[in-house]
Amino acid sequence: MLVKCGGLEMVTKTEELNIVGKNWTRLDGANKVSGRSVFTDDVRLPGMLCGKVVRSPHPYARIISIDASAAEALPGVKAVLLPEDAKGIWIGVNQPLLAQGKATYVGHDIAAVAALDEETAAKAAALIKIKYEKLPEVTSIKQALADDTPLLHAKAKGNVGWEQKASWGDPDASFAACDQIREEEFVTYPSHNCYAEFHVAIADFTQPGKLTMWTPSQSALMFQKVLAAAFKLPDSAVRMLTLNTGGGFSGRVTPRPHHFLAALLSRKSGRPVRIRASGDEEFIMCRAGGKVVYRLKSGATKQGRLKVIEADLLFDTGAYVESQMIVTILTSSYLNALYKIDASRYRGRLIHTNHLPYYFHHGGGIAQFQFALGQHIDGLARDIGMDPVEFNLLNAVDKDYTPLHGSFYTSCGLKECIEKSAEQAGWKEKYGKLPKYKGIGLGIGAMASGAKGVFKHDTSAALIKITDDGLASLSIGLPDIGQSSHTAMAIIAGEVLGITPDDIRVVSGDTDSDPLDVGAFTQRGTFNTGNAVKNACQDARDQLAKVAAAKLGADAEQLVFRNRLIYPDGEPDKAIEFKQLVFDTLHSQEGRFVMGRGFYNSPLEKGTMAYSFGAQIAEVSVDPGTGVVTVEKVTAAHDVGRALNPRIVEGQIDGQVFSAMSQVLYEECIMEDGQVMNPSRLDYKMPRAFEMPEVEHIIVETIDPNGPFGAKEVGEGPIVCTMQAIANAVTNAIGKPVKDMPLTPWRVLRHIND
Amino acid sequence: MGKQLITLTVNGDSHEIAIQSHHTLLDVLRNELGLTGTKRGCTAGSCGACTVNGDAGEAICSCLSLAIEWDGRSVTTIEGVQEGSELHPVQDAFLEFGAVQCGFCTPGLIMTTKALLDVNSSPSEDEINEALAGAFCRCTGHIKVKKAVRKAVEMLRDRAAGNAG
Question: What is the CATH number that goes with domain A45-135+200-276?
Fold first, then answer.
């Protein structure tokens, strides 16, 4: 195993790899630093209108009447949508696109307008008069679960919209065999993804039976399928155009109300329509996670053997179930991912309230769950009198282990990550020995690289065409939402073909021409699309090798493709140039134009082929006068399988440490009577440059047997470790547990003074 | 509402533009001149995506500045930073040192950095932090951004030394 610590120095890791593992500048970088990159809001279509949505100001109200006559009469208004125009269109599981009779949350879409410009659209939206009769709202989980609270949906008994239950082994018997049992409750509060690029969609539905949409997205395929179903079109009649996407953070996987509304407004007006969010709308139209209460119980022997974990989770899911049942499925599986335990039990319930239907935040609910679980396990170790690092090492999973949820770990660097991060951070010298109000904490995590289950397949496909100038175009359907996935794919292609990533153009973002790809979520890009690209390039290479073998009088299997040359292994003096070979292959009697195709789909029925693992040590200081937590340093080890592009891997780790630090210390949609009280980037606090700690990276490489060149995900694994590490460090600093997130100064002060 | 004619110089090019009094500099750059490299973010001065450089090279939130105030003045946008086909050292440093991810905030960050380094060729850590405090990046955690700013300082110093030599 190869382990590389910190810094930018490049290490050549294996003799045989020439492209993979070096630092490559991202292919889209030059456009991004010079203002030439095009994002959705930069698109101008002829005759394009501006859309504006009218939303409920009340958490719960009956809609008595809607009068749109003044809006319709306003010069410049080209279309008005009312609830009856959107009948039969559903979002998520059970949400009508426009409120039908009742508005059930602040921000519930009721009507929409399209006009010549933003000002006229805003004016028209304000002219739509809606009469409401306010109803008593339900704005907390506790209230929703009370016996006398009216049901928000007749079908959701007890206001429980979804329940996920699972049990592995014999939890009761396992608890009975424990010497130490710990039971406690944690809470995380509502949040927002805060993408750099605000919500925006442009729809062109001016031809019947053909919808074209530009929007930032993590999965064009999901958008295409959901929109096609809503408008009763064949999938291919919906053309999704994904330009640069200004961040995903688990929040851009499926279409949201504004996507459907832009399409309907376009169809009605006969012109393209853009809907984009203003600063405050951003927080009202979509949010990430709602409040979650985590009740955890676990037990261990006095020797420190963890035997059983039980979790009972309550999610404020909002007025409708958007997609949070997936969070319950994920958290139930991740309950078992990290430790060798005998048994576990899970219950997760989605509770309806008069809040916006919640979605995912960065970390997909798993990182937030680990905020609770990581602290809980830390507490159990303390109860037994064990050092948390020792406790975690004693119980951590290994390679070739099958955890209770049934996956198989073909590679696993969890223990190495714990050991290396602890060693690098000086854990032994610091834990329990720091002055008061200084703390150190450990967090560990696992993350699947792709997960079959959304569809029956988890397929990514790729196509590479090689032109007679020796260059190549790689077509994929995986979007680059900032994670540098397109460059990673060019690295894989370059390694297989013996050319450089700079020789390759990555073409993507148009469902009319892209090969199929499930998309950039569940951390599937590197693993699934990476394998598809590798297969496509191998296909192209085989075609070229056949011609080269004949020319060189060598065995095609023995040919080396490297440094834009092809030669029999060990005989570089016989090399022919890659460009010449491609030219000769085309300009021949056969006239072969080389195109390689490939796809990858996990052979499993469900779940993932590979997990990444990580461990992080956070060091903090707490100001006992103000409650302000300063994160001084984070030492982050991550088992990425193999780092395809090490500097980009570091950047992924940095970004996730930031995002997790942001969530655990700052981010909160402060709710009052169903209303967000801080809907702006100024009041919804996130760390700025001066607040960021030093981050030390430790890249652990376990070379996964099924990953492309051994690679696994690094897109959401690191974030899973950070929140718990910081919380554990705060607990270590103040000597009291901190069970609510975010740990804003007033909450920390309350803990100190309790 | 009547329109007013203003003369605005952008990246050295002079434009006569008819604007309404409530239009911001950002509106004019993006909608009237098609310079979409300057990004429309929060439109409230809290994200920095719309940052351009004013007459004196200062960092300006173009979303908070009325276009009418710019009559007879000049601004530099991200499209005007590159020198011919060569990237400016600040752009180069951001590109080479991994300070770019999704890229939406990048133009604003580069204009913020350029404004700092144009007047301060050796900023302290605190001065870099202060300059970047108004520029929000969701992807990078600002860590490689700060590294890139420090690299840009070195690259500009090397370039100045080269020119002097």
Answer: 3.90.1170.50
